[in-house]
Specification:
The complex is a heterodimer. By secondary structure, chain A is of the alpha/beta class. Chain A has 20 helices and 20 strands. In chain A, the strands form four sheets. Chain A has a six-stranded mixed sheet with strand order 6-7-8-3-9-10, sandwiched between helices. A six-stranded mixed sheet of chain A has the order 16-17-18-13-19-20, with helices on both faces. A four-stranded antiparallel sheet of chain A has the order 2-1-4-5, covered by helices on one side. In chain A, strand 4 and strand 5 form a beta hairpin. By secondary structure, chain B is mainly α. Chain B has 14 helices and four strands. In chain B, strand 2 and strand 3 form a beta hairpin. The longest helix of chain B has 26 residues. The radius of gyration of chain B is 21 Å and the shape is globular. The chains are: A alpha/beta, B mainly alpha. Chains A and B meet through helix 2 of A and helix 9 and helix 10 of B.
Chain lengths: ~500, ~325
């Protein structure tokens, strides 16, 4: 066998108390597509960041084309021929498409080494054309759609003529036809002799385009080999180390009356004619691609954005939805997706975080009442099991799963009737995920109603009672347990221009 | 051509230019004597000072920072160079220009070190150096003023003079604007500033050095403030401890009115220069409009605040475009 283009040996990395990677070996060969798979939090993205010079490894060695390299800066990785399309494209909204592509390597004029704008625009146009798009390189990036931005990040990765190209979950935000096009591009790069690293947790994609696989679990190597010699079941076992039922425990709760009714809910640019209803004790899943408008609907429901039309009734009473505090008073709770920025105040203690949404309950006329705060936090502790040394520990010191439990717990303390959870298990490890799912199960048993926004099909199917699918700002389909059909759901989520048939579909939805 | 004109109008700079033109015409209708030669000189000079400071400030704002020490740097270099002109009356004007730039750059370097290396937030760091440097002006002069007859003729000559009928302060500003525009537009280090201000994490991933970017913008902001220090003392033929005190508001407002984002990543030299023009027209016109001299400062402040607020409304973040635009069933709201 020829010498691999990339050989990684014994790479380890710790972040604070968490061993993100533990002595990982990995190699990629020219002209091959190597799948790096694992659950969220398994360490895939950490490995990518080490290979691209964003984080230095604590120990271990990286050889590229046989030569030992220290990748301590992003520039080192670029010089060594490693290029990556990151999961959350790190791009510049205010700059032009062309400049986003060449931000690290502006084409320069022959003399004086100045930035050559004409060459930059020309080269960008060529790269974009090769990728089969007609995006104007002079356009400001912030004006592009999610899929277009993804293509721009792809063009950037191809602009440096790298020999190793890493795709970090590239299909998360793409529609069916865009995924097909992406796979065509990957196939072409492979034939050109590039070494491709393809990161995903969608196994059908892995079997479709990859030659080799490596599985990570909890930061450790859990298996590697040829995809031709393995099966989907083997990979799941290696990835998860337990069965799916353990991660998605489905607890049965009795449904009560309809509590939340949404009709014709619209926003000028983000979503249109969204309608659904929710019963007590029900988990309603909102599935769709990243950027389908689900978060925007929830933010509007919670009063963070203004609707342009539609009606929302809670227990039959219309809601005004002018501000989050009105929504909280009415009995809504919203746990946002980005807990680091929106959900928890990281440098504050657990108890302060928990008491914050109901600060008026714990304050006297002027000052905070410490004992009332303690009582509240003890009550909260009964709801969610958190691993922490004390309630005064800072939230930023907790693991991702425990941070998420703090955020969920603090909203439970407001005594809501409807809880909206936006990607509650994003970026946390499998064990914590199961714990979060059990917490959700307990909520509905208590008679609460839950809206679960999830981009993970397994999760959406695993714990929802009903499932609403959104695409491009519209509800395109609705499914009820047990009629969850993986393929139909995925197809609905990736359809394009749902505005055409959307009217028909939403008319079919029950309750309208 | 009509389409091009329309996009130009839609852009911030276009709207601002039209606003300034309307304002100017209204002033001239009300007080034709505003067009007097001396007053136009006065307008161009006021604009010159403000524009030089504002484009320096803009480079810092582009990174998401702020430089509050410019006015203090201006006062300090002005005082220092005026004193120097007493000691060596034979020194030519060009020496003062270069020394002013150099001293300002040195003081800006201190801001850069405090922010980039020590890690103090820009607003705190420059609030500190603002106070320290202003204090040093008192130390330097013993609290005294240096007036016209104490300065050398060569010192005063350049800043008060005209070339091809235009005040030298105005021309200096044009040169500064052109230079900084060229740097920001055509040089890697200039483009890195926009990238850094647009998305710091992404900039780091692209190998852009935070320290280098932050040092650079504070040095530039300080250098132009130092240049203004000389021009100010020489043009007004007085160096005093409170020179330009409180100008920070007008400088930053010029940037904001010109479309520079306080959050970083967005702003153009033309915009900042037009923002400065708006404020300069406003400030120079008030005496002609017979606004009570004591009320002028308050009026200027209020109008600037209104202009900034109007801008902030225009800037307010639109929602993301998720719906395909053609099949929208509800019309977009006009507001």
């Amino acid at each position: 066998m020829p010498e691999p283009v990339l050989r990684v040996e014994g790479i380890s990395k710790r972040f604070g108390g968490v061993q993100a990677l533990d002595s990982i070996d990995f190699e990629a060969h020219a002209g091959e597509t190597h799948a790096l798979i694992g659950e969220n939090g398994a360490g895939k993205s950490t490995l990518v960041k080490i290979l691209t010079g964003i984080h230095p490894a604590d120990s271990g060695s990286i050889r590229i084309k046989g030569e030992r390299r220290s990748l301590s800066r992003p520039q080192d990785a670029a010089d060594a021929g490693v290029s990556a399309i990151h999961q959350e494209p790190s791009m510049f909204d205010e700059l032009s498409v062309a400049e986003n592509i060449f931000v690290a390597s502006h084409p320069s004029t022959a003399r004086f080494g100045l930035v050559s704008w004409p060459r930059m625009v020309r080269n960008a146009a060529r790269l974009l054309q090769d990728l089969g798009t007609e995006i104007d390189p002079r356009k400001e990036l912030g004006l592009l759609s999610v899929a277009e931005r993804h293509i721009v990040s792809l063009a950037r990765a191809l602009s440096t003529d790298a020999s190793i190209i890493i795709f970090d979950e590239p299909t998360a935000a793409l529609s069916h036809s865009e995924i097909g096009r992406l796979f065509g591009i990957i196939g072409r790069l492979r034939r050109q002799g590039k070494a491709i690293v393809f990161i995903s947790h969608k196994l059908d994609e892995v079997f479709r385009i990859c030659d080799r696989y490596t599985v990570l679990r909890d930061g450790m190597l859990a298996g590697t080999g040829q995809t031709a010699d393995t099966s989907e079941d083997d990979l799941i076992r290696a990835m998860v180390g337990r069965t799916l039922d353990d991660i998605y425990p489905k607890s049965k709760a009795a449904f009560g009356d309809v509590i939340l009714q949404v009709q014709g809910f619209s926003h000028p640019t983000e979503f249109d004619n969204v309608g659904f209803q929710l019963r007590k004790g029900e988990i309603l899943g909102f599935y769709g691609l990243v950027g389908a408008g689900r978060t925007e609907v929830m933010e509007t429901l919670f009063g963070l954005k203004r609707r342009s039309g539609g009606e929302v009734r809670l227990r039959g009473t219309p809601l005004k939805l002018n501000s989050p505090s009105e929504a909280i008073d009415a009995g809504l709770a919203y746990v946002p997706e980005d807990r680091q920025n929106h959900g928890a105040i990281l440098p504050m203690s657990i108890s302060k975080n928990v008491s914050l949404p109901q600060i008026d309950k714990v304050s006297g006329s002027i000052f905070l009442n410490g004992s009332r705060e303690d009582a509240l936090v003890d009550e909260f502790g009964k709801n969610v099991a958190i691993k922490a040394s004390s309630w005064s520990q800072l939230v930023e010191e907790l693991s991702g799963g425990n941070q998420q439990k703090v955020v969920i717990g603090k909203w439970l303390a407001t005594d809501p009737e409807v809880v909206i959870l936006d990607e509650p298990t994003k970026g946390i490890d499998v064990g914590s995920k199961a714990a979060v799912h059990r917490t959700i199960g307990q909520l509905v048993k208590k008679g609460l109603a839950v809206i679960l926004v999830s981009s993970e099909l397994e999760e959406a199917i695993g714990i929802s009672d009903r499932l609403v699918v959104m695409a491009q700002g519209r509800i395109v389909a609705e499914f009820s347990r047990p009629d969850f059909d993986r393929e139909e759901i995925a197809a609905a989520a990736t359809q394009q221009n749902p505005g055409v048939g959307g009217q028909k579909l939403s008319a079919e939805a029950p309750g309208r | 051509m009509a389409a091009a004109a329309r996009t130009a109008l839609q852009r911030r700079e276009g709207i601002l230019a039209v606003t300034i033109a309307v304002l100017f015409i209204l002033i001239v209708i009300r007080a034709p004597e505003y067009l007097g030669e001396q007053n136009i000189d006065n307008l161009l000079t006021s604009w010159g000072f403000l524009a030089i400071l504002a484009i320096g400030q803009m480079t810092v704002l582009l990174t998401g920072g702020i430089d509050l020490s410019q006015a203090s740097v201006l006062a300090f270099t002005g005082m220092f160079l005026a004193l120097l002109s007493q000691i060596s009356p034979a020194a030519p004007a060009i020496a003062f220009v270069l020394l002013g730039l150099l001293m300002g750059a040195g003081l800006g370097l201190l801001n850069g070190i405090a922010v980039a290396w020590v890690g103090i937030p820009p607003i705190i760091a420059t609030l500190g150096t603002m106070t320290i440097i202003r204090g040093l002006v008192y130390v330097l002069s013993g609290g005294a003023w240096i007036s016209s007859h104490e300065m050398s003729e060569r010192f005063k000559f350049f800043a008060a003079d005209e070339t091809i009928g235009l005040p030298n302060v105005f021309l200096s500003a044009i040169v500064c604007c052109a230079g900084i525009w060229f740097w920001l537009h055509f040089m890697r280090s200039g483009r890195d500033i926009y990238a850094f201000g647009s998305n710091q994490t992404a900039a780091r991933n692209a190998g852009i050095s935070r320290k280098q970017v932050q040092m650079l913008v504070f040095v530039v902001s300080g250098a132009v403030a130092g240049l203004c220090g000389y021009l100010w003392a020489a043009r007004f033929a007085i160096a005093y401890t409170q020179a330009a005190e409180g100008r920070e508001f007008a400088i930053i407002a010029a940037c904001v009115i010109g479309g520079v984002s306080i959050m970083g990543g967005r702003g153009t030299v033309v915009g900042a220069a037009l923002g400065a023009l708006f404020i300069a027209v406003l400030e120079t016109s008030l005496p002609f409009l017979r606004i009570n001299a004591f009320a002028q400062l308050a009026v200027v402040g209020a109008v600037i605040l209104i202009a900034v607020a109007a801008n902030a409304r225009a800037e307010r973040k639109r929602g993301r475009q998720i719906l395909a635009p053609q099949d929208r069933s509800t019309p977009p709201s006009v507001a």
